[in-house]
Amino acid sequence: MKQSNSCGSQQRSILATWMRSGTSKGLYVLRDQLPKCPSAWEPILLSLMGTGSQINGIGGGTPTTSKVAVVSRSTVPGYDVDYTFAQADFVGARLDMSGTCGNIAAGVGQFALDQNLVEVSHEQEWADIRVLVTNTGQALLVSIPLKNTKCDIRITFLDPNGNMTGKLFPSGARKDYLAFQCPSTGTKVTVRATLIDCTNPFILVDSASMPTLYALEGPKATQSEALIEAIRRAGAVRMGLARDVTEAAKQRGTPKIAVIAHPSASNQSVDVDVTAFIAGVLHPTFQVTGAICLSAALSIPGTVASDLLPSSILCRETFYSKLQSPRIWRIAHRAGQIDVEISVSQDTKGEYFVERGSIIRTARKLFEGRAFYTL
């Protein structure tokens, strides 16, 4: 850490890289630039990213542009690098390290190459980088083309079942009914949802069960965002991630939540339509980890996602008997489409298991140098 004086206050700095990774932006930092104990990172990273309006930091004023990746060479056998994700909650002025980010993971591979954390030869066409997500224990394979100018990065989540809760379906059911008090009307409301832990804990809500208020006001309205947060808190308790809704309110990043629906009449080339939320506000696209969760739910009968599929796709006797074969799901979101390749199997007891899920992202380095903070 380097120190300097600015306007009478002492500033410190660390070496860092700012990257656009997938549909997010984040600060990439080598672990040796930070204190050894992660509990000491919060004031540093919050100062770097900024809180409130973020005018005094490098964060972009949205959750998707306020992310941090801390990367190091791994000491765990079988892995090349360790990746610790941190979400800067600039509204609540806290650092959330409870989950992970698939978009930011795309840049981890490129950053590892730039920082010489992994070795590649001139003969290699691809660099397959084995990444350990320290937040959740998730294993990733980040594949980067070395000789192709079209830098499509393939991120593969290996065995992403129950990383945080120990179960693919934490509640024990593939479909749950969540009851809560509507923040706007005070009335009791119940929605249908699938609670799934596949890379990240996610709540997938059936749009048909949402209160009329949501459809009338639209997902971006303050009332709708409050409604979504109430559902998210109820789901957190049902998943065992919080003891009560008060505790769930303190952890805005986990679980995550999305509302799913049939494809629109104008976009029948996709399998499902999704509206996602992040840290209490509408997400501009859809999280990579959410896409993996949704694809897993689409592949397993009895979830709110698979219930949306037309019978022509399901043909349950044939479709679900071929689960081991990779399946590509096409998901529409607010800014476009995301495709996921997923492999799901079933054991002799009838339990479903996600073997792997893959997605294509891109990443671009925007700048590197010293980032300054004040304690």
From TrEMBL:
List the GO molecular function terms. Answer: isomerase activity
Q: Name one Pfam family in it.
A: PrpF
Keywords, A to Z, come to: Isomerase
SUPFAM superfamilies given in the database record: Diaminopimelate epimerase-like
**Key word Amino-acid biosynthesis present:** no
Q: Which domain of life is it from?
A: Eukaryota
**Residues annotated as signal peptide:** none
The answer to whether keyword Isomerase applies is: yes
Q: Which Gene3D superfamilies match?
A: Diaminopimelate Epimerase, Chain A, domain 1
The text of the family note is: Belongs to the PrpF family.
From the Swiss-Prot or TrEMBL record, give the protein name. PrpF protein
Organism this protein belongs to? Penicillium coprophilum
